[in-house]
Amino acid sequence: LPSAPMRTMLGSGLRRAFGRGFSSAPKDVKDVYTVGVVGLGLMGHGIAQAAAMAGMRVIGVEREEAAVEAGRNRIEGSISRILAKQVAKGTTTQDLAEQEAHRVLGNLRYETHIEAVKDCDLVIEAIVEDMRIKVPFWKQLGALCKPEAIFASNTSSLAITAQAEASGRPSQFVGLHFFNPVQLMRLVEVIATKHTSEETFDTAKAWAARLPDKVVVSCKDTPGFIVNRLLVPAIAQALLMVDRGDATVADIDVAMKLGAGHPMGPCLLADYVGLDTTKAILAGWVANYPDEPAFFVPKCLEDKVFKGDLGRKTGKGFYLWDGDKPLGVAD
């Protein structure tokens, strides 16, 4: 799930994006010099940017030139904004900012063919959240890439194990779950499957720790990992309260803001994320884990999605929206 609204719970954001020291990888893990990022959309461009900022050589891949250009523009725009803020605050000069931008952008290369990542030390997938696409993708990568390469998926809710097995090298496969926007959100979840070797897991954690201002946590391949395993069922419980008439949307959200210290309530958060996205995650978990009582799709969520009221992205969900600004509870 994109979790920018939760940033006050996870950290204060990108405090020192440039000019900081990066932690060195322990001597007993592999060094990662070149990183392939497949998919330069909402998440992928941020991952590519973070790796380039950390001094790694990055190859960003999209299927079409237009998507490559869109990813490139996102990265260049993000770097420009970050450095402009640094200059405005007086923490760097314009000349040094231009040198830093040149350094970071020089670490990035863009391609439209998947063969470009065949010699990368680490390949991270940030493509569409659909196992029907991810499984054949990993089969292709497993046959293409050098034998020692490590593979990682940035999925927020799909099983890492099934992808690892599809790759043909499950011992060299992890989850690397970043949060949106990657440039601001500090947390990275590193996920191990039952197949993941200790060396691969240690290398992935050490690599993530080298990225600018990132905090690394780790867990097993459980649905939703840590954050979304707790967050999404909490949203579902809030919407179940709406279904039962226990409390209104407004009162539930106010209660969780003032009583639990959350930056926004669960109904508003579901709107912000996208009600279709929230429903898709819950429905997938229901299908794959039918005996888990925490996984269900609330009726009010199904109704909103059926009507096309998907939250922030459509201007109406449980709330009315003006762009990214909620205007009040919808009728």
Can you describe this structure?
It is a single chain. It is built from 12 helices and 10 strands. It has helices at residues 7-10, 44-53, 65-89, 94-106, 131-144, 160-167, 198-209, 227-244, 249-260, 266-273, 275-288, 299-307, and strands spanning 34-38, 57-61, 108-111, 122-125, 150-153, 173-178, 187-192, 215-220, 319-322, 325-329. The strands form 2 sheets. An 8-stranded mixed β-sheet has the order 3-2-1-4-5-6-7-8, sandwiched between helices. A two-stranded antiparallel ribbon has the order 9-10. Strand 5 (150-153), helix 6 and strand 6 (173-178) form a beta-alpha-beta unit. Helix 2 packs across helix 3, helix 3 (65-89) packs antiparallel against helix 4 (94-106) and helix 5 (131-144) runs parallel beside helix 6 (160-167). The longest helix is centred in the N-terminal third of the chain and has 25 residues, at 65-89. The chain is globular. Mean pLDDT is 90; it is low at 2-28.
Structure, briefly:
Helices cover about 45% and strands about 15% of the residues.
Task: Offer a few descriptive terms.
44% helix; two-stranded antiparallel ribbon; 331 residues; eight-stranded mixed sheet
Ordered list of secondary-structure elements with their pairings:
Elements: H1 7-10, E1 34-38, H2 44-53, E2 57-61, H3 65-89, H4 94-106, E3 108-111, E4 122-125, H5 131-144, E5 150-153, H6 160-167, E6 173-178, E7 187-192, H7 198-209, E8 215-220, H8 227-244, H9 249-260, H10 266-273, H11 275-288, H12 299-307, E9 319-322, E10 325-329
Parallel strand pairs: 1-2, 1-4, 2-3, 4-5, 5-6, 7-8
Antiparallel strand pairs: 6-7, 9-10
